[in-house]
Amino acid sequence: MEVELTAPNGKKWMQPLGLFINNEFVKSSNEQKIASINPTTEEEICSVYAATSDDVDKAVTAARKAFRDKSWKSLSGTERGALMLKLADLVGQHAETLATIECLDNGKPYSVALSENLPEVQNVLRYYAGYADKNFGQVIDVGPAKFAYTVKEPLGVCGQIIPWNYPLDMAAWKLGPALCCGNTIVLKLAEQTPLSMLYVAKLIKEAGFPPGVVNIINGHGREAGAALVQHPQVDKIAFTGSTATGKEIMKMASATMKNITLETGGKSPLIVFEDADLDNAATWSHGGIMSNQGQICTATSRILVQEPIYNQFLEKFKAKVQEVSVVGDPFEENTFQGPQVTKQQYERVLSYIRAGKEEGATVMMGGEPAPQKGKGFFVAPTVFTNVKPSMQIYREEIFGPCVAIVSFKTEEEAIELANDTTYGLGSALFTKDLTRAHRVAREIEAGMVWINSSNDSDFRIPFGGVKQSGIGRELGEAGLTAYCHVKSIHVNMAA
Ligand code: NAI
Ligand code: MG
């Protein structure tokens, strides 16, 4: 059920390979496995058991039993919070191992995993641990004949399906509010990157969560994911991933009328007005698309620049890419950009680059593979100019280090271009004009607006989209509403 692994940085650890059900690692019912690949070397790291629909049923049954069991149900919010704080501490103690696993399995730079992703996991757990005894109902005064009050109750068994771009963070965003409210969980990992969260499963047991409260399974989307979404004993599905899969999930979840939260794709605009601080705009707009290998749902992948400063901005953006976007082995200290997560994503990104060229856009930078020592799913940071809003590279989510830069004349035109999309997740704008900043922020059809920054996500602030970018919110106080319902209790005082 475990194998000893050693990473290129010398770290050694025991990697769990099983399905984590009832606080134990077990094989899948037919012993099927999925190989996890290191995207830097294209070699197999290890093979991990993959759940069948029978295994999903076992995990859901465990979660249902745990939901009704006193060991979880009768805990106070304060006690649930204490378990979550313990887990956050354990994640901190194992941060270097977890960052190593993430770097190996996902390809993101070790330094980023350690300095950004691991603190995020702890912050989210601690934030929602703090809420666990502060999320309660109201007394509603309707006069002396009736005493009425509300209580906030957990939804029950939550199925959570996460993607591969932020395996640890996406899990924390889902586990945090769900545990805070007293739910039990079956978390399905992305089959491309299961290793870090299987390691966290050990820490969940060590923290003292009762068996069945958190079950963690690896498995294919169409098999394990679909079984979870359709299981009649699952009360809620929370999903992060592609818009196409999100739509399928909505359809499947309708059969048993499950509560759903969806966080899907984006093609987020970033507007640079002529009065902006261009150095600041170049710094954030570079990070907003090139971080995490461009594999960010809120990536500001469409940059709209006002005409008078268009050429000046291009020069500054180009300089940023040259200075910051160091492509290389993600274990190397100075690497900014590692490989795309899988061969499939690598090919998908390259096919968009081809489409951009065929449709007549200009490749200002990159536009080709960037193998390291002849290996790996690396793509050169790519900047397209002369992009028309009709082009595929302007309309579709590429999910790679590729940006489309276009110019605009007026504020009205910028807003029109920004909103000309089926998505509505993130957005950013750069200006020194305070009133324009707030005015445009209100006009953009998106769940989030960054003024003079981009992708400056924060666990205390709600995250989510409008249009086809999703339903519901994660993070912040708003994230709690996705995991509890309000029960109303009427007491007849005349009885
Ligand atoms: P996907 O949306 O198919 O996969 C995400 C998760 O959903 C994985 O855990 C997968 O196993 C599961 N899943 C897949 N099909 C399912 C089904 N029928 N029922 C239940 N669960 C299912 O995304 P994929 O194929 O890995 O990536 C394709 C594209 O999706 C990317 O190029 C990117 O554009 C977008 N994407 C967006 C993400 C985001 O953060 N919003 C994250 C990952 C991908
Ligand atoms: Mg991998």
From TrEMBL:
Gene Ontology terms for molecular function: aldehyde dehydrogenase (NAD+) activity
Enzyme class: oxidoreductase
Family in the record: Belongs to the aldehyde dehydrogenase family.
Source organism (scientific name): Diplogelasinospora grovesii
Catalytic residues of the enzyme: E263
Keywords carried by this UniProt record: NAD, Oxidoreductase
InterPro entries listed in its UniProt record: Ald_DH/histidinol_DH (IPR016161), Ald_DH_C (IPR016163), Ald_DH_CS_GLU (IPR029510), Ald_DH_N (IPR016162), Aldehyde_DH_dom (IPR015590)
EC number assigned by the record: 1.2.1.3
This protein's name: aldehyde dehydrogenase (NAD(+))
A Pfam family the protein falls into: Aldedh
